[in-house]
Automatic annotation (TrEMBL), chains A, E:
Lineage: Bacteria, Bacillati, Actinomycetota, Actinomycetes, Micromonosporales
Cellular location(s): Cell membrane
Record key words, sorted: Cell inner membrane, Cell membrane, Membrane, Sugar transport, Transmembrane, Transmembrane helix, Transport
CC per GO annotation: plasma membrane
Record keyword ATP-binding present: no
UniProt-recorded name of the protein: Xylose transport system permease protein XylH
Cross-referenced InterPro entries: ABC_transp_permease
Recorded superkingdom: Bacteria
Its biological purpose: Part of the binding-protein-dependent transport system for D-xylose. Probably responsible for the translocation of the substrate across the membrane.
Gene Ontology molecular function terms on file: transmembrane transporter activity
Pfam families: BPD_transp_2 (PF02653)
TrEMBL record, chains C, D:
Domain of life (superkingdom): Bacteria
Molecular function as annotated in GO: ATP binding; ATP hydrolysis activity
ABC transporter domain span: 7-244
Keywords associated with the record: ATP-binding, Nucleotide-binding
Gene source species: Actinoplanes lobatus
Residue ranges of coiled coil: none
Record-linked CDD domains: ABC_Carb_Monos_I
Name of this chain's protein: D-xylose transport system ATP-binding protein
Length: 417, 345, 268, 268, 417
């Protein structure tokens, strides 16, 4: 039997129970409303495939840790791109923008001999300025973002070449910068980070739940909230456990354990941007402009300013991606941020579930989609195929991961939601 | 679930004592050699020695390069052979390998400051010098007076292209300075893209109709330039250089459209590298690395095997065939049968 | 009734490319009164509203608000003056839910965090007062709402604020019997609170039920603006369909630059 | 009147995810009759129409057309059966002009070339018969049309074809006085020509003016389907707002799985 | 004074005169409805810039002829992409698809020694099959086209590498194939082509005009129609005049004059596709699906089939682009169709005025946009800048061309149309 309760505005609603909540969830899934489920499913399938074919290497603690470092650039660019995509715009220049910012940092560190706490902010500021310029061109002049950022894509390639004086590589030696995407937290800090993270998540969830219940608004049953917290805790702790195993290749020579430093970096930005999008006026306005620009304009939202701001965020995140890739490679060259970086980043956001038409997407989608892309890249290289075949397989595996997603979503249109 | 570092090798044959070797090749764009020649020869060499090898190509992507390296290190290789995409990434990989206790070999390209254990290579600057000298010879043969020489360089983002250019500049620039040659257009071809190369050369010719010699950085770009010259019936009249001794390049040479190419006996290079790697994998001290090269950055000496590239003109195309680098069937198709006979193949 | 109009338009012209849609239109909105704006389909009512609210720029003419001449370049400007509009093409964000749409552009915050609970409560109260039934949840996406539910959300959105002029463009078109009654009552209540209300409607019963003044647009021209008490139902219909009725309305001779594009009369 | 219904729905259920919108709905449409489908906002009228026309798949129930049980999976299937629908959310292609929209999916051709001239003539005739005024050109993009003009185009589009059942979902909501009269006349004419017509409307005057039967939906359930002559205006309103009226309508005891989400009654 | 007339449905309309028509045109332009005008303006500005800075070379007959050959691949791919973009989809794989098709042709010609009339159709069929597969994946499985074609982008790169056995170049010698994008029409044929083209255009325009007038529908005034025909004639004849000038680099050695063979190829496809989009049911349905998929579905249009078909057309056009680029280079390599080809092609369509959101675009836009891109490429290489600076300038010039467009269009939103 269901019990009803009265909520805001006197609307009678069914009091949700754990059972009804789970029943509703499955009904929603059958109805095609899936959130990140399909991308996560696709990820699981991939892990299964690679895990079965290269168990000892793909599933090793070392490889697991490597995944985070390898994904850093794409995940950061993709997180920024989510904002741009939410508005139905595109930024083709994000890849090379990250290269330019990375190069700015590298040059300041080496040629100018400045310390990291000058060079890193300088790179970030470069990103912000780039975003401002792109945003203004799109919002104020009204040039389609595809064209603006295509021009920027070419221009930044040239800037990068010029910064690197026609093709030199610049190696960096700054230990702090190098540690960003190579170093690890100590085992103690790794656990500390996991515990603080889980506690923070639990607190946020419970406070929110309390707030709604106390004001007599429809809230999830406590059981579901607790289950969600438990799930996150299990994930976080088991990941930390694996990451704090000894994973040095040659244990005699060196020891390597602890959560890679990029993990807290990714988590912090994920939390910040998720908060911004879900819980602030600004985020609400981003969704509104992306969903229906005209409606947003009529509601008095400063559409142009929002449009500029997403390009700033995107280029800013690209700058961090650039810093991290330079850190990882300890060097910057004229192709940093080139190649497939951009397509992969957009792909990451889209696979995660972000719409290219605007209005639909979350930052977590970029992280999950980035994981899909990197697992494919990582797994494929472990198979040791020759180039041609590897490209073909990469394409096929990407398609397979996306099909899981598409098939899961298929019923959505059939049932009309 | 995967704590053992032992590869689980249970056999007792000769190979059991040898560890696995990882090889990372750079790309498929700067030259056809990586995917066609090196891969084949290295695979054969390792197979012959019964050593397990994992050979991969980074597709010109540095991120992928490091990803592959991570994967190889994770899979427990004992020797890592790399052709770096740039010294920075190369160095990062070499350092990681070293901390993991893996022996390293720089193949074809020296990683500056990387401190690899060994170095096997053709000298890229030397390749450029041969190209420059080849062009000079062809121009002299054509008795060109104050010829305008155009440069069709490789990808601006490829460090090798810079090295090649250093090589041919060292031969030709003095001629410019002396006023013997006239400096013509000088442009890079992004990604070594042949189609773009063709367009760029077409524009050079539109811009300067007097171009009398083309220094093209490899056979693909050479062919692109030759097609433009053909359209203007200037093929054969304007010498064009190349590199890699590809079938296409050799055919152009036989047809008289290309002046020379540079042949790098890749099999020798591959065999030398494989030999080193196999020795290291078996934990022996290799004896073949007799020369040394000084790392310009650290001033450290790296034990090396150095091989000499060879300049190929119509006169010695047959050497390449004799070497088995290209087969007669590939080269001497119907259109070129006559020229082949003439060249003594 | 108040002597000076709260909002006054004078000589408004508006063209879309070669097509002139509004010709020298004037309109006065008085505080405490409901002004009905009527006119045939395509007469230019919605265009006029959009000119007032800054969605379209006007080609000529002046807008006076509260005695001051103002220039409204965007809906932001209009909102700043205290003009709220319910548009005929509702303009809701399909990817947002009911509460989010209702507070769009005026979110309640606590610090920098959105105060969802307060907004949800306020939205619930407003919807309740508009007789909304069958909404399953205040967190339903508006894309999944029925036509009438969407319209109610749009109306609720416009009346949540302390505005001085409320313009409603065919607000009851998709509403059921009970909801229509509620909205008309709301319209009356707004005017009684001293606001200037403009109601656009094709339903003469509704128009006469709540309005104090009636302004009739005919083919982009203001045919007449009269007190509701002074005209009959059929006179208004004549103004709408013919531009004049007796001595009311446009002059009988057609202005020289005016081209009749009315289709040939269909025999009844 | 004809004995067998032309279109008959039985036991239609439809859920969107966890929300069940239609419960065991039945409806019969007879040839030569106008069946009015009434119901409150959000009752499920539009959803029912979309189930019939193949836009939504139904979860349970049968559709019988002309005595044969049919399964309609897409609007193509519905059109093939001869079912034409004017949707509430008009669904016009904003990037096409009036003529192009009216003939969308059924273009006239001469060989492989579109016969634009014929289509333009036919479109002009149809619009003329619907009393459309103020359309500047038949080649105007529908994105630039007024609300009423758009609705007229949608109606004109549906009646151009030789169909057997025409369903109109609130066709007159945005129309002016004269246009509404024309559309009602058209509805009557269609029925008199032997078609089965379903008219959804919130306007009781219109409903009683043209319809032979009235079907009332209440919260996703079919409350009653009666002859228009047998009921009064106020009885229908009671059916709409309460689901029953006297001995008509849903049983007084609520089905066990039914949850009332009606907001608390607002005091009048 | 205006006179009115009665048209279809008894609607009274003003009888348009030449004067009123011109007046209306300017009113429309002021109102922001500009068609290809801005792109053409951008093109003119570019020609002016390059013409002034490199008059003797950029404005030479040789360079003018080269422009056509150089643009062939991009223009063909862009024409195909217009169809995909009209549906709001994207095809990232079109570049490499053209490479694969070119490679198929080259291999059949050389390795298998087949004649061109087998190899060329085989390449086209390859294109069609590729399009079918992409289309089915997008339409039937419902995977976003960005992801499908990203996978295909990777996959085809691998296929190309595999076809070329890991990176070899294949030279073709077939004279017919080589002539396609190198040869020219004889001077007589060049003029014949121009005359037939202009007569055909005139006939089409006049027949259409007659048809409308005879049925008493609103038609343009005859003066405007005649003026338009005259404009096209002047353009065609002056272009033909320039192209039939002697343009050999070394006139002593060889003679080179006549319209390049690609020009009739481009014109024929432009005419065919323009006809298909504007005058057939299929074209109408493409616009409808792009404008409002749901409305199209409700109108009974087989949306899935349309969606598949545009991918087929796109890949088919890419195959022709591939054939032409292989013809131009007389060789195919693993990078054929790679690099910036795809971004440039999409850019061409977008600069011309095609919307990435679907429903808006014409095939001619691709040709004009392609001209913008190629003029930039062509002009930039004439300036002889170093790589870095060249990239930067290319970006800036592209931006400048797009700004002309954007500024011209700006008023559109201000006046609300
Ligand atoms: N962007 C535009 N471009 C061209 N004409 C337009 C545009 N917008 C509106 N029109 C025309 O202007 C006229 C007035 O339109 P408007 O929407 O103001 O009418 P309305 O009085 O609101 O009609 P309805 O009662 O049908 O809503 C119509 O004839 C319409 O076709
Ligand atoms: N896609 C959907 N997902 C969830 N709920 C939906 C969806 N579509 C409709 N609904 C709900 O179904 C109910 C019926 O909607 P429907 O549009 O059929 O109402 P209606 O009778 O046409 O109302 P109106 O008179 O306002 O047009 C509404 O409560 C609506 O919120
Ligand atoms: Mg209106
Ligand atoms: Mg409805």
């Amino acid at each position: 039997m269901t019990t009803t309760t009265e909520t805001a505005g006197g609307i009678q609603v069914v009091k949700p129970t754990v059972a009804s909540h789970i029943r509703d969830y499955f009904a929603r899934v059958r109805g095609g409303d899936l959130g990140t489920l399909p991308a996560v499913l696709g990820l699981l399938v991939l892990v299964l495939i690679f895990g079965l074919s290269r168990a000892e290497t793909f599933l090793s603690a070392l490889n697991f840790a490597n995944l985070f470092n390898q994904s850093a650039q794409i995940v950061f660019i993709a997180m920024g791109l989510v904002f741009v995509l939410l508005l139905g715009e595109i930024d083709l220049s994000a890849g090379f923008a990250s290269g330019v910012c990375g190069a700015v940092m590298a040059i300041l560190l080496t040629t100018h001999g400045l310390p990291w706490y000058v060079a890193i902010p300088a790179a970030m500021v470069t990103g912000i300025v780039i975003g401002l310029v792109l945003g203004v061109l799109v919002a104020k002049l009204g040039i389609p973002s595809f064209v603006v950022t295509l021009a920027a894509f070419l221009g930044f390639q040239g800037v990068l070449l010029t910064l690197l004086e026609g093709g030199k590589n610049i190696s960096i030696t700054d230990e702090f910068v190098k540690s960003l995407n190579n170093g690890t937290l100590s085992v103690r800090d790794s656990w500390l980070f996991a515990i603080i993270g889980v506690l923070g998540f639990a607190a946020a969830q419970l406070i929110r739940w309390r707030g709604r219940v106390s004001r007599n608004l429809v809230a999830e049953p406590l059981g579901i909230v607790v289950a969600r917290i438990a799930g996150v805790a299990v994930l976080a702790f088991s990941a930390t456990y694996v990451l704090t195993l000894e994973r040095a290749v040659n244990k005699a020579i060196t020891s390597l354990k602890g959560t890679p430093i990029v993990v807290p970096l990714i988590v912090v930005f994920l939390v910040i941007w998720t908060f911004v999008l879900a819980r602030t006026t600004y985020g609400r306005h981003v969704y509104a402009v992306g969903g229906n620009t005209e409606a947003a304009r009529r509601a008095g939202i400063p559409v142009d300013r929002i449009r500029i701001s997403v390009f700033v965020i995107c280029s800013f995140m690209a700058s961090i991606g650039g810093i991290l890739v330079v850190s990882r490679q300890s060097s910057v060259d004229p192709n940093t941020g080139g190649s497939n970086i951009l397509l992969y980043s957009v792909g990451a956001a889209v696979i995660g579930g972000t719409s290219l038409f605007g209005g639909k997407g979350k930052v977590i989608y970029a992280v999950i989609g980035g994981a899909v892309i990197i697992v494919i890249e990582n797994g494929m290289t472990l198979l040791g195929l020759n180039s041609g075949v590897k490209f073909i397989f990469t394409g096929l595996v990407l398609l397979a991961a996306a099909s899981v997603d598409a098939l899961a979503r298929r019923r959505a249109s059939a049932t009309g939601s | 679930a995967c704590g053992t570092d032992d590869g689980g090798d249970t056999g007792t044959g000769t190979s059991s004592s040898a560890g696995k070797v990882g090889v990372i090749l750079p790309d498929t764009k700067s030259s056809a050699r990586w995917a066609t020649a090196d891969l084949k020869y290295l695979t054969e060499a390792f197979k012959a020695a019964g050593v397990e090898a994992d050979i991969q190509n980074a597709e010109g992507d540095k991120t992928r390069f490091t990803t592959i390296a991570d994967g190889m290190i994770a899979s427990g290789v004992k020797v890592l052979v790399i052709v770096n995409l740039d010294s920075g990434t190369g160095k990062a990989v070499l350092e990681k390998a070293k901390t993991a206790g893996i022996a390293t070999i720089d193949y074809d390209r020296l990683t500056l400051g990387g401190g690899a254990n060994y170095y096997v290579s053709f000298d890229n600057t030397e390749v450029g010098k041969l190209q420059g000298q080849g062009l000079v010879d062809c121009l002299t043969e054509k008795k060109a007076a104050k010829p305008v020489v155009a440069y069709l360089n490789g990808s601006p983002t490829d460090n090798n292209a810079t090295l090649f250019k250093q090589g041919y500049d060292s031969v030709i620039k003095p001629k410019f300075d002396a006023g013997d040659y006239v400096k013509g257009p000088d442009q890079d071809v992004p990604d070594w893209d042949n189609a773009q190369g063709g367009t760029i050369f077409e524009q050079m010719l539109t811009q300067n109709k007097a171009i009398a010699g083309v220094l093209a950085a490899n056979d693909g770009l050479g062919n692109a330039a030759i097609q433009v010259l053909k359209r203007n019936k200037l093929n054969g009249k304007v010498p064009v250089t190349g590199q890699d001794a590809t079938v296409q390049g050799l055919q152009n040479i036989l047809a008289g459209d290309q002046c020379m190419t540079v042949y790098k006996a890749i099999k020798k290079e591959a065999d030398a590298a494989a030999e080193l790697a196999i020795a290291l994998a078996k934990q022996e001290t290799p004896s073949t690395a007799t020369k040394t090269v000084v790392d310009p950055e650290t001033k450290a000496e790296v034990k090396s095997v150095l091989l000499a590239p060879q300049s190929i003109t119509a006169a010695n195309v047959k050497d390449v065939v004799a070497d088995g680098f290209v087969t007669k069937e590939e080269l001497c198709t119907a259109d070129f049968a006559e020229a082949c006979t003439k060249a003594g193949i | 009734m108040a002597a000076t109009p709260l909002l006054e338009l004078r000589g408004i012209d508006k063209s879309f490319g070669p097509v002139q849609v509004l010709h020298d239109v004037g309109l006065s909105v008085y505080p405490g009164e409901v002004t009905a704006l009527v006119g045939d389909n395509g007469a230019g009512k919605s265009t006029l509203v959009k000119c007032v609210s800054g969605i379209y720029s006007i080609d000529a003419g002046t807008v006076t608000f509260d005695g001051r001449e103002v220039s409204v370049h965007s809906p932001r400007d209009a909102a700043a003056l205290g003009i709220e509009v319910v548009y005929q093409d509702l303009a809701l964000c399909d990817n947002l839910d009911i509460v989010q749409n209702m507070f769009l552009g005026r979110e309640k915050r606590r610090g920098i965090v959105l105060d969802e609970a307060t907004m949800e409560e306020m939205a619930g109260e407003t919807l309740r007062s508009l007789s909304v039934r069958t909404v399953k949840s205040l967190r339903q996406l508006v894309s999944s709402l029925s036509g009438g539910q969407r319209q109610t959300v749009a109306i609720a959105k416009a009346v949540l604020w302390n505005s001085r002029v409320v313009i409603l463009d065919e607000p009851t078109a998709a509403l059921g019997v009970a909801q229509t009654a509620q909205v008309l009552e709301l319209v009356r209540r707004l005017a009684d609170n001293g606001l200037g209300v403009v109601l656009i409607s094709h339903n003469m019963n509704d128009v006469f039920a709540v309005s104090d003044r009636i302004a009739a647009l005919y083919l982009g021209r203001m045919a007449a603006q009269v007190k509701a008490a002074d005209v009959t139902h059929s006179q208004v219909v004549e103004l709408i369909t013919g531009g004049r009725s007796g001595n009311l309305g446009l002059p009988p001779e057609r202005p020289s630059d005016f081209i009749d594009i009315t289709p040939g009369e269909v025999k009844k």
